[in-house]
Design brief:
The structure is a single chain. Helices cover about 55% and strands about 10% of the residues. The strands form four sheets. It has a five-stranded parallel beta sheet with strand order 7-6-5-11-12, with helices on both faces.
Length: about 600
């Protein structure tokens, strides 16, 4: 097995370097850019030559000689090239055994146990429940769910969670907007008491023929506009006070409008095939953070200023700017609540690792949160990870990037962009005249989701992204459609094959398929790289590369020719299909076998 051989080589190099005095050496064996350089290459000699005080080329030769003391089957040759690279070539039997192992492993191909026994919690897509979700939320969701699926492939127990910030002035504006804007008659009083006694006097999303999240968005927008009126603002701010005091009617209205928001959010998540295992609600724990501040003051972790505000002590130990954890009027901030919720998560799940998928604008806030958590004994900073992602913008006619803006009216909603892509695909399928209307509807939905998800996940998550509908549905470009069509091609080959996929007669030597086989063997390494970086874009890029190699081979080779080599070629196609499907599943993309 390829991975077993790599382990043996790493161990041999490591032992030799330790004998030479290197403490805990890190051995890198990386995929190569061309078949001319073998299957894997190592720059270990270049990395440690200065430390052991010999020439990199000489150290590389010594490391290769160390392998002579180890009986490693499957290596054809090892070459040392200037200025000190070590190139490793596998023999044909090893490569063919790897292809057979893909067929045997099937959906488990690429999985590993690097995080077996660990518990991870991934918080992602925590939308404010006063607006419909837009493309920024979509990127958050796809990045977060990609990490969830990726870690599950590495043996971890993974919980996906989110928090609803469901209280405060923004929610009160939503409530006021509902009372004002969703009245069936202009004569109906804008009054919580009147609503509580006459709920039928206000529209529901069904009666307005609106999706629940769009219904809520309209309410919030109107509530925001109404704040220009001092009387409306006073009423809205009083709602916050009354909610804090537990006013029955205010709480009833609060639950009424938020249930619409939750319904709309969950409809969109269901369409995406995403989920949360647990939802935290801000109103359930926001007061508890104050106790953590009190504990911090008692321990000397915080200091109380003359005006009554409470400040952290982070500069000296962590080199981070101080931040307020409790306002001078005694009210809490987000960091106050996050302290309580982080501790609650640790205790609830017994998690080794907590991850937050949140935009880069919160990077400093998370550094401060993690440092304070360490000061309070909630957990070590290395237990916590903030995963960032770039902004999502609109592609201008000149190809430039334009950031979305709610105020400028340039926000694109998730459902709208999926529907736009779906319509383009449905038109193509209709022209082909191969499917019934029902089949077109189902197939175009699956392909639209594939196109959109891949379009977001193929780029490094930290890069700003301009989503391009035309590019996303290009079956010949760097798109999910291209990968999907490649997968469909593998399934077509398998359907037409009259034998049993699995057994094959090995060729005397590898031919045009060599490059394809070399790419196939890299998939487990790509999974490990994606896991290390907590970024599935590595997988998306790999799937494009694999699809390209497969299609190049397919164009040169007659696969179903009835010869003795036909079963071998079908196995190769099947291995490609398995790998594409496994990778797409991590991206949250459901495959289709026919288009």
């Amino acid at each position: 097995m390829v991975q077993d051989i790599l382990v043996e080589i790493r161990d041999a190099f490591c032992r030799h370097l330790e004998i030479m005095g290197v403490q805990n050496p890190e051995i890198t064996l990386e995929r190569v850019s061309s078949v001319d350089f073998g299957d894997y290459s190592s720059n270990t000699a270049l990395r440690y030559a200065k430390q052991v005080k010999i020439n990199p080329l000489e150290l590389a030769e010594k490391l290769v000689l160390s392998l002579q003391d180890v009986d490693i089957n499957g290596v054809l040759k090892i070459k040392v090239v200037e200025p000190g690279f070590i190139n490793i070539y596998f023999d044909s039997n090893t490569k063919l055994e790897h292809i057979a192992s893909i067929i045997e492993a099937d959906e488990r191909y690429g999985a590993n146990t690097s995080h077996a026994g660990e518990t991870w919690v991934i918080e992602h897509t925590s939308p404010n429940p006063n607006k419909a979700m837009h493309l920024g939320h979509l990127r958050n969701n796809l990045v977060g769910m990609g990490i969830v699926r990726l870690l599950e492939r590495t043996g971890a127990t993974v919980t996906s969670d989110a928090i609803y910030n469901n209280r405060g002035i923004a929610i009160a504006k939503l409530m006021y907007g509902f009372l004002l804007y969703m009245r069936k008659s202009g004569d109906t009083p804008v009054s919580i008491e009147h609503w509580a006694a006459n709920k039928s006097h206000w529209y529901s999303p069904v009666e307005k023929d609106l999706k629940p999240d769009l219904f809520v968005t309209e309410c919030y927008v109107e509530g925001e506009k109404a704040m220009a009126n001092p009387d409306a603002e006073e009423v809205t701010r009083q709602m916050v006070v009354d909610w804090e005091a537990g006013n029955e009617n205010v709480w009833a209205l609060w639950e009424h409008v938020l249930n619409f928001a939750y319904e709309g959010i969950h409809r969109t998540l269901s369409r995406l095939g995403s989920h949360w295992d647990k939802i935290w609600y801000e109103h359930e724990h926001y007061k508890e953070g104050k106790q953590y501040v009190a504990d911090g003051l008692e321990r000397g972790v915080f200091e109380k200023l003359e005006d009554g505000a409470v400040l952290t002590k982070l500069e000296e130990t962590y080199g981070l700017p101080e931040t307020v954890v409790l306002k001078k009027d005694g009210t809490s901030l987000y960091i106050t609540q996050d302290l309580a919720l982080t501790d609650l998560k640790k205790k609830t799940y017994g998690a080794e690792k907590l991850v937050w998928v949140v935009g880069p604008e919160q990077s400093m806030a998370f550094k401060q949160l993690f440092a304070v958590c360490e000061q309070l004994g909630i957990g070590a900073r290395e237990d916590f990870t903030h995963v960032t992602y770039g902004y999502v913008g609109l592609k201008e006619s000149d190809g430039s990037f334009k950031k979305m803006s709610s105020r400028a009216g340039t926000v694109v909603l998730i459902d709208d962009v999926i529907d736009s892509v779906k319509n383009v695909i449905a038109e193509r399928l209709t022209v082909d005249s191969k499917h019934s209307p029902e089949e077109i509807s189902e197939l175009s939905e699956k392909l639209a989701l594939a196109a959109v998800k891949f379009g977001f996940l193929r780029s490094d998550r930290n890069q700003d992204l301009s989503f391009d509908i035309d590019q996303s549905v290009n079956i010949h470009g760097d798109s999910g459609m291209y990968v999907m069509y490649s997968y469909v091609r593998t399934q077509s080959i398998i359907r037409k094959f009259t034998g049993t996929v699995g057994t094959f007669e090995a060729p005397d030597e590898l031919g045009d398929e060599s490059a394809l086989i070399r790419v196939l063997q890299y998939y487990p390494d790509v999974i490990k790289k994606a896991q290390l970086d907590l970024s599935v874009h590595h997988i998306a890029q790999y799937l494009l590369e694999l699809s390209s190699e497969f299609n190049s081979w397919y164009a040169k080779e007659t696969i179903l020719d009835g010869s003795d080599m036909e079963p071998y070629r079908v196995v190769l196609a099947s291995a490609v299909g398995t790998t594409l499907k496994n990778g797409l599943e991590i991206l949250g993309i459901e495959t289709v076998s026919k288009i």
